What does this fold into?
Amino acid sequence: MITDGAEMQTERLGDIEVAYRPAGEGARVVLLHGLAQDHEMWGAQQRDLPASTLAYDLRGHGRTTVGEADGTLAQLGQDLIAFLECFGPAHCAGFSLGGTIALWAAAERPDLMQSVVAVATSSVVGRRAVAGVRERIELFEKGDAGAMREVLLEDTRQQLARGTATAEEIVDGRMKAIGDGRGYINGARAMAGMHEQPLNDALSRIELPVLVVAGERDVVCPPRAAEIMLEHLPSAEYEELSGAGHLITDEDPDTLTRVLSTWLERKGNG
It folds into this structure.
């Protein structure tokens, strides 16, 4: 099994050069990170999952170029579809924004997916939350790296619940992942768009196996957000991680890996 040391690779898909890290052997699993992150957030899962994982950097994050970004969930979903068309059908596990992307694509192209695991994900952005997202877009558009770091540090502290991860170290990685900030702005605009156009209608069209994973103490995508999703995904399954905040891969990577491993054991043949 390939673990640490696997080299990043790139693939031209449409208007962007997509960077991804392959690891492991077994069922194919595509891993999608959240806003202001990159493939490195999935390090523990790529090391420990008994699967062939492909963790790619979203448009404008990490080493993936931003291209002609239009700030929509549809474009990010089409990026995933292009990735799956290139590498073949797969299970998809997405964190936060990555989860909404995977669900959007599952509704559009179920032939390319075997299952979806949505981790710390919401299908709609409320009025208060969208105001905060728009404030961050305005701040990032100014390009002040110091101010960007401060707001990411504030957000990261709120997203941690257990005290088992250090916000400052996480933000070091997040600053590296966002580069000049254009990818963050693009992803944030896609999230803001979910205020006027929630994902709920799309969820009702998904017939694939879906697992919704939530952190008990998540203040960004709380268990209530999972409940809303489950109302539109009547056949989906649910797993709540006791004591976990939003940043599950930082706070409790081993438990998440066990959840994913169990899911793949049950759904591995599609």
